[in-house]
Design a protein that fits this description.
The chain is an alpha/beta fold and 336 residues long. It has two domains: 216 residues, Zn peptidases (Aminopeptidase); 100 residues, no CATH class. 21% of the residues lie in helices and 26% in strands. It has eight helices and 17 strands. Strands 1, 2, 3, 4, 5, 6, 7, 8, 9, 13, 16 and 17 form a twelve-stranded mixed beta sheet that branches. Strand 3, helix 1 and strand 4 form a beta-alpha-beta unit. Helix 1 crosses helix 6. The chain is globular and about 65 Å long. The model has no long low-confidence stretch (mean pLDDT 96).
Length: 336
């Protein structure tokens, strides 16, 4: 399934994500030589409808058509099949960001492919890893890390002052690479923003020019650090709507405006159908459903039970079904 190239395929700079399958017909790992040998690894399109990574890489690499890269670069292009129809994943596919080493093994060919990518990069002594994503709700640009380590903070801080530490879900790219090098996921807001593409390109450019990770810590004033405490999902059997309609839970029409906002206890999230039990689940890092700790139903309304800060709330049902409704976070004290 995995193509391995040592140069960009013809047409790379002209293609869109939805047309990419015409020039690489399956997941592809491209190794490009630069002045420093230890490569920067960048993964894009692990979710086929998130194209900022491709646009950012086209922008960066176009600057080096007639001069060497400052550092070697290994570019992994993920789910080109899903990208061809602008969806996160096809219905018969696993999530390409849940099948990396460390996942719950199911014997899938995608698991073997991702393990091959990681091993290749281990042999090449990868310098740092960046996984580029978009999201579907209103969110600031932020970085995600899986290690509380100054090198990871330094890399995250090159992208944003907002960093989110999490250990669930498992099987994601950054966790697989965290054993090899500093690694981050960067969330670049909604698809279609030129500013998001430019921000991602600037970050990649900065990472390519890094000689080493500074030994001094990121200062407290330069880093807002959060920790995810729960992954919120909607059971398959629960029907949903937004604003109005007939469903087990009708969420607030602008629920994604709550992202990265501390919600006070008693904040209304939606209307629950009479007689319906708790319509959402919230799983902690140990996989326990702790929804009752954070939410309650009162007079037919779904309310927050305690102050919480959500991230990645979305109004797209397909994303909710394939991934989640949101994450819940708490501030993680950081002294620098």
């Amino acid at each position: 399934m995995l193509n391995i190239l040592d140069q960009l395929p013809p047409g790379f700079f002209e293609t869109t994500a939805s047309e990419l399958h015409h020039i690489v017909n399956s997941p592809t790992l491209i190794h490009l030589q630069g002045r420093r040998a230890e490569p920067l690894f960048v993964s894009i399109l692990l979710h086929g409808n998130e194209d900022t990574g491709l646009k950012a890489m086209q922008q960066v690499l176009s600057r080096y058509l007639s001069k060497p890269l400052p550092r070697s670069l290994s570019l992994f292009i993920g789910n080109v099949s899903a990208a061809s129809i602008r969806v996160r994943r096809l219905d018969n596919q696993p999530d390409y960001n849940r099948v990396w080493p460390g996942c719950e093994p199911l014997g899938l060919p995608e698991e073997k492919m991702m393990a091959q990518v990681v091993e290749d990069m281990r042999v090449r002594r990868v310098f740092a890893s960046i996984d580029i994503h978009n999201n579907t709700g209103l969110n600031p640009h932020y970085a995600c890390i899986n290690r509380l380590d100054q090198r990871f903070f330094q890399l995250a801080n090159l992208f944003s002052r907002i960093a989110v530490y999490f250990v669930r879900p498992i099987g994601i790219q950054t966790m697989a690479f965290a054993d090899l090098c500093p690694s981050v996921t960067v969330e670049c807001g909604k698809v279609g923003s030129v500013a998001s593409d430019d921000h991602a390109a600037s970050f990649i450019e900065a990472a390519l020019h890094l000689d080493h990770f500074p030994l001094h810590p990121v200062t407290r004033h330069d880093l807002d650090l959060y920790h995810t405490v729960a992954l919120v999902k909607v059971p398959e059997t629960t029907s949903i709507a937004f604003g109005s309609g007939e469903a087990d839970i009708v969420f607030e029409p602008d629920i994604d405006h709550f992202n990265f906002t501390e919600l006070q206890a008693g904040t209304r999230l939606g209307q629950v159908l009479p007689g319906c039990a708790m319509p959402i689940q919230a799983f902690d890092d140990d996989g326990n459903d702790v929804a009752a700790n954070y939410f309650e139903i009162r007079h037919g309304e779904l309310l927050t039970r305690q102050p919480i800060m959500p991230a990645m709330l979305t109004r797209l049902e397909r994303i909710i079904r394939q991934d989640c409704l949101c994450y819940l976070m708490e501030n993680l004290p950081y002294e620098g």
